[in-house]
Design a protein that fits this description.
This protein has helices spanning 20-39, 43-57, 133-138, 143-161, 181-196, 215-255, 262-277, and strands at residues 18-19, 60-63, 67-73, 76-81, 85-88, 94-99, 103-113, 119-130, 201-213. The protein is of the alpha+beta class. It has 3 domains: 18-99, no CATH class; 103-213, Tetrahydropterin Synthase, Chain A (2-Layer Sandwich), CATH 3.30.479.30; 218-277. A 3-stranded antiparallel beta sheet has the order 1-5-2, with helices on one face. A 3-stranded antiparallel beta sheet has the order 4-3-6, with no helix packed on it. β3 and β4 (76-81) form a beta hairpin. α1 packs antiparallel against α2, α4 runs antiparallel to α5 (181-196) and α6 packs antiparallel against α7. It is rod-shaped.
Length: 293
């Protein structure tokens, strides 16, 4: 069952930081002023100015593009800063950096049962990114492990909802894992989004990377597929041969080339069907007598 967000779930709060270059310049000025005060034998003011400059510099931090800083003060969440570059915040704030870039998760090949109960092997690649930093950090213990486990659970559940391949027991046009790649990918993405929502994670894309019958039934299923292909091909050949024979008989009758009684017509149809449906080249037999001998 997909995870549900609790009503009291913590959400990301934007934090507006100060331009770090201005703060750095202010810190340097304070340190310089303190040094000049010490040279003028103003001991206490000099120490206080230098301490203030160092304290100011302690609040500086750098953010790369698509990187955030989660700020807390004595365990209380203050906000999330998404402004890239050199920034400054109150030095007592604890700053935890968290990337919001897209990440890849390769779900290892799993052995599961499809809708019919046949064992199959299935794998997937998931592209995801952190959307809500507060949920990712404070609502789950380890959001990366959470994503990995939920992705595996979603893939197992998805495989059980669809049959591997088409067969007589399925409705016409019903989606299967093998033939409905796009529909299956959309269903997988929807289920992943529902499961990741509690951790503030967004599903960017999801696709199957591996799909096959399990080794213990692969040969049996391959023979079944081959038999189905042969039956389908034979049906088309027979349909085409019957159409050609019908056209030949109509053409002979319309042009009054030869008159055939029902017995000879049946023999002609039999011979034509043998020639058209045979896997091997027909061997012609020359009849030196009449049509009836």
């Amino acid at each position: 069952m997909a995870a549900q967000i609790r009503p009291e779930a913590r959400r990301e709060t934007p934090f507006t930081s100060v331009n770090g270059y201005l703060a750095a310049a202010g810190g340097v000025l304070l340190v310089v002023a303190g040094a000049l005060a010490l040279r003028g034998f103003l001991l206490l003011p000099g120490i206080l100015l230098i301490a203030a400059g160092v304290f100011l510099a302690a609040g500086l931090y750098m953010l790369q593009p698509n990187e955030t800083a989660i700020l807390t003060l004595f365990g209380k969440y203050v906000g999330t800063d998404r402004t890239e570059g050199l920034r400054w915040a109150f030095p007592l704030y604890r700053k935890r950096k968290l990337t919001v870039r897209a990440r890849n998760l390769n779900v290892a090949t799993l052995k599961v049962n499809d809708r019919r109960g046949n064992p199959i092997e299935i794998g997937a690649a998931v592209v995801w990114r952190v959307q809500d930093t507060a949920q990712a950090v404070f609502e789950v213990d380890d959001f990366e492990r959470y994503v990995s486990i939920q992705a595996e659970a979603a893939l197992r559940h998805l495989a059980s909802q669809y049959a591997y391949d088409e067969a007589d027991d399925l409705a016409t046009g019903e989606t299967t894992l093998r033939a409905g790649a796009n529909e299956v990918a959309l269903a997988l993405r929807a289920e992943l989004s529902a499961r990741f929502e509690a951790a503030g994670v967004e599903t960017v894309d999801a696709k199957l990377t591996h799909l096959a019958y399990a080794a213990e039934i692969a040969q049996v299923m391959l023979r079944r597929q081959q038999a189905e292909a042969i039956i389908s091909a034979r049906a088309k050949i027979v349909h085409g041969a019957v159409t050609m024979v019908d056209a030949a008989l109509k053409a002979l009758a319309e042009r009054d080339i030869v008159e055939l009684d029902p017995e000879r017509k049946a023999a002609m149809v039999s011979n034509l069907l043998v020639v058209l449906c045979s896997d091997q080249n027909a061997q012609p037999i020359i009849n030196a007598g009449t049509l009836y001998n």
